[in-house]
Amino acid sequence: MGDISNFKVGLSSDLDNGQGGFSWGEINIDSLAPLNWNFLPSVGSTFTPESLSGYDAVAFAGPGITDDSFPEPELSPLVLSRFGVGYDNIDLAACTAAGTALTITPDGSKKPVATAALMLMLSTMHRLVAKDSLARANGWNRRLDGLGQGLNGKTVGTIGLGNIASEFFRLIAPFDTNRISFDPWKTDAEALQHNVTLVDLPTLMASADVVVVMAALTPETRHLIGAKEIGAMKRSAILINISRGPIVDESALINALTSHSIFGAGLDVFETEPTSPGNPLLAMDNVIVTPHNIAWTDELAFGMGTSAFKAITEISNGRIPDFVVNKDVVNTPQFKEKLAKWQR
Q1: Low-confidence ranges of the chain (pLDDT < 50)
Q2: Cα–Cα nearest to 301, from 290, 293, 311
Q3: Is 194 among the residues known to form the active site?
Q4: Catalytic residue among 194, 244, 250, 314
Q5: For a pLDDT cut of 70, what percent of the chain falls above it?
Q6: Which of 48, 155, 205, 222 has the most CB atoms around it within 10 Å of its CB?
Q7: Residue 244 annotated as catalytic
Q8: Taking Cα atoms as reference points, which of 139, 120, 164 lies closest to residue 266?
Q9: Does residue 34 have a cis peptide bond before it, meaning omega lies within 30 degrees of 0?
Q10: What are the contacts of 330-338 at 24+ separation with CB within 8 A?
Q11: Omega prior to 333 cis, within 30 of 0
């Protein structure tokens, strides 16, 4: 059994605020005790073998993983614990080959992200930013221009019915809505637990007053919402995306918004991030945009930190943590050999 004081934990440099604290604020770092940790050097967009070598665990937010990111398996971390639920910039096969488990933080993200989705939906429907601009411009005589929409009586559809979408539907329970979802991985029985009806994608796009994208970005979901799908939406419908930009064909969305063939959009994500300052979406008064940070709150930071550090603590005690993405890694000899060192 390894000496726990020798268990090395690294935190990615994007978690460092440069002033002795954390860029996310309070992330429950105390829950890592008695483990020792330090910040890793800045690595840019992807981890390098030098940055990961010799660490037993790494908590991180932004950097990606490629097949060139790891040193040899015995020097690679047992766990990479990601702040968040997306992992489209992580090469899972490379993690598994290195004997490294990738964990995510759905328990820490679920409520804050669902709350942010509700806020963005209501703000877009009520045209909050346009009305804010009107007040600041002393446009009281134009208050009836561009009325917003109420949620009651509307059909709300989600692309995806995972943890966040399930929590989102729980949050809108007080509203009088019809609830539908497209998720080929869910059963009718699972959907009914949330008072949701599963439908196919064409049905959802044609019948929903609000389409909320809550799916993971995969090769199958890239441009899942294209010109055909957006063209099927009601003229009064809005599209909300808090997931990943490339799930929606941005050019098709711009065309629909420019021609007013849909009512509006609320976007926390873009196809390319950061988006270009000349992106037409930024100039539209029927669009609300945020820089992929709408759910970033003290609640989210504390929840993700708690979850990420719990995964690391479990590994340091020789136990397999919750929320391992590449589940097949736990049966590899390179993972088992490293884990055995810490089993009690």
Answers
A1: none
A2: 293
A3: no
A4: 244
A5: 100
A6: 205
A7: yes
A8: 120
A9: yes
A10: 330/101, 332/96, 332/99, 333/99, 334/73, 334/74, 334/97, 334/98, 334/99, 335/78, 335/99, 335/100, 335/101, 336/99, 337/74, 337/99, 338/56, 338/73, 338/74, 338/78, 338/99
A11: no
Q: Which alpha helices (DSSP H) does the chain contain, by range?
A: 49-52, 92-97, 106-125, 128-136, 163-171, 188-192, 201-207, 227-231, 250-258, 298-316, 333-340
Q: What is the per-residue pLDDT across 44-98, written as a single tens digit (0 to 9) for each?
A: 899 999 999 999 999 999 999 999 999 999 999 999 999 999 999 999 999 999 9
Tokens at 219, concatenated: 């090769």
Average pLDDT, the chain: 96
* Catalytic annotation, pick one of 126, 222, 223, 292: 292
**Residue 223 designated active-site:** no
> Exactly one of 50, 72, 273, 337 is catalytic; which is it?
273
Distance in angstroms (rounded) separating the CA atoms of residues 224 and 298: 32
Please tell me the distance from the alpha carbon of residue 62 to that of residue 190, in angstroms, as a whole number: 32
Tokens representing residue 142 in the block: 């134009």
The structure tokens listed for 249 are 């064909």
**CA–centroid distance for 268 within its chain:** 10
Q: Which domains does the chain have, with CATH numbers?
A: 4-107+297-340 (3.40.50.720), 128-285 (3.40.50.720)
Say what the pLDDT of residue 1 is: 63
